[in-house]
Design a protein that fits this description.
Length: about 375
Amino acid sequence: MRMSFRAAVSVLFFVNGMTIGSWAPKLPTLMARLEISESVAGLIVLCLGAGSMCIMPVFGAMVARRGSARAVAIAAWVSAPLLMLISLAPDVWSVGAAVFLFGGFLGGMDVAMNANAVAVERNRSRAIMSSCHGFWSMGAFAGAAGGGLLIQSLGEMAHGAVIFAITAAGLFVALPALLQDAPAGDAPRAPLRLPRSPVPYLLGLMALTAMIPEGAILDWAAVYLRQEMGSSLAVAGWGFAGCAATMAVMRFLGDAIRHRLGAVTTLRVSAVIAMTGLAVAGMAGTAGLAIAGFAMAGIGIANMVPIAFSAAGNMPGLAAGMGLSVVTMMGYSGILLAPGLIGWLAEYAGLGPIYLGLALLLLVPLAMSRLARSADFEAGRP
């Protein structure tokens, strides 16, 4: 029996999330192996974001010209072995180069798989974006929670090999079943230009400010729990895992919640919950309370970005993938670039005050929440 279009793209979200989640417990391991400080580790995280910013637009154009199915296959297969390459890299420079490619091709995969999810929404005339991001969060939870245990028990290289094997199996199953959305050969080509309307950039700003806290939890929660609270590596991995778990649950519920409450109200409630969770994590005195705060933040963060992506993916007048590419690139600069700056700040202020500051940052999407009304599927274009 052939896998459905929705199931196929959901597998890709899971695989991408698992790979990103596996990065979370790897950073403290790299810091110990390379004997580097938080500020140097921040530069490595910056390489992750720089790679994404450089390569994401290439895949946005590829989606527009060739369709998302082809683009996601290229990005997925190139990114699959890069976690092992990071494990093999012997020094800071080679690790930085490998991390640049890792961030770049995972970012390209992200643009393409979100575009494919939008295509499936149109094909089904039904919203699926939040649940797709739910599968991403499930994968991120598996990668973060299992990654620390794998590294601790089998070692860094074996961890990369296990993640590669799971990824390859998922790609073999899912890629042939994807919805093929390549433009017809005789179809007129929309110009590959940046949007002239300010709306995609405002949606991108909304996604950016929503994803900076997620990036701060992904890259620094394990360091926060291990170095500032003295947790074991296995427990430290649960900082992001707790966030990813609640994000997964809420994203599977997100499409129904958005249908009932509307995108604007959903976004507003989500922002308030995320702000509260980040404040709890930042003021926590124990690892357990910090993990609980990260989990609460995940409840709020969960549906903010899918709402922005759905709105961007259905904008009229743009080549397929271009509006989504702008919002995705701006949004993922939050999850990929900002944590590098956080590493530098953490040496001077500590991570607790930083998480408190990030709670205030979510006032931005709260104030811009009316832009989310176009994400209501029945209000937009099917």
